[in-house]
Amino acid sequence: MVRITWRGNSTQELLSSCRLRWSYMKHCCHSLTFNAHMNSSYASDVCMTPIFWVVDNYTHCLGPFFVIGVACLTTAVVSIAYWIGFPFWLAKGQLALAFVLIVGNWLLLNVIFHYIMAVITPPGHPPENVLLVEAVTMCGKCVTPKPPRTHHCSVCNRCVLKMDHHCPWLNNCVGYGNHRYFFLYMLYTTLGCLFLILFGLEIGYKYLWLDHGENWTELEPLVGQPVKFNLSGHIIPVTHPHEYDEFDLPAAVHNLPTPVLDTDAPSPGRRRALWFMAFTNVAVVIALGTLCSWHAKLITRGETSVESHINEAERKRLLKEQRIYINPYNFGAKKNWKIFLGLVRGRSFWRTVLLPSWHKPEGTGLSFHTVHDAALVDEWP
């Protein structure tokens, strides 16, 4: 009985010693890796650091290939649309063809213009080696004064005025100087793909859905009697059991339907091109349409992609203090869109938005009006 008690005490002491050592090891590990700012976001940033490094150092090398890819993809889609769509709508009538050509080329013109301008237009950078009275802080990476709404691009390794993001498809930053071109390119590309889908549904239904091999029907019922296949491959009824076996009988004459060759049936190459158009346009509408909707929401709220994260964090911080955060650059949906599209100083919507326009954004990008400005007039600035 004494021996059993001794073994039980020994087992408890061993378990207690193991727990103590495990607790000591955990405390040592925590003390060596302690960080007062540690949270899930910080941990995810640490884990994503290698990916960020690759993006920052190699995105600018891949940018030209992305631009060439966009140009080749656009050229392929437009070429297929003319190759297959033009004859189809020409057969429909001249009025239908004229409508498709006018609307389609108007969309194409806007897509090409706004993409080229978004690529070649600088987003805007703070001037160097000058005293900036508009500066509100210093950039910790390039150690230069930063005006309001300016952020550092790790890919370009420069500060960008009113930076939204770095777009690899443009091989350029989206910022103060080219934000309007970038958004209108997305908008017109989405509309152009929707246009091709809408006016290509009938073409796809005719050439991809319907079967063009069955263009004739049997004229005589074939149920309940023997049949044969003639030289053309059609099924014919046998009216005499030995009509082809006896040489003294004349050959039977049958009135058979002549197969109609469908000259409109697409070749395998055209069918593959139509499937390519279908998948490409649907994918672009989903991807680019979603991105365009997101940017439209940001424009309505008077903020950029970078500012949306900053403002959201500020809202949460002030909410804990039972205070409300007000975006200083949010003048209301209508005025935000007028400022973004440049519909000021008498500019019209049809000339500025519906047609290509080279007008630059108002101001210098170094300072911006806020909702706190007392002298704010309708025609800002």
UniProtKB/TrEMBL annotation:
Matches recorded under Pfam families: DHHC
Superkingdom classification of source: Eukaryota
GO molecular function, one term: protein-cysteine S-palmitoyltransferase activity
Any one cellular-component term (Gene Ontology): membrane
EC id: 2.3.1.225
Annotated ranges, domain Palmitoyltransferase DHHC: 137-309
Main location group: membrane
Topology within the bilayer: Multi-pass membrane protein
Main EC class the enzyme belongs to: transferase
Catalytic activity line of the entry: L-cysteinyl-[protein] + hexadecanoyl-CoA = S-hexadecanoyl-L-cysteinyl-[protein] + CoA
Keywords from the named record: Acyltransferase, Membrane, Transferase, Transmembrane, Transmembrane helix
Identification of the protein by name: Palmitoyltransferase
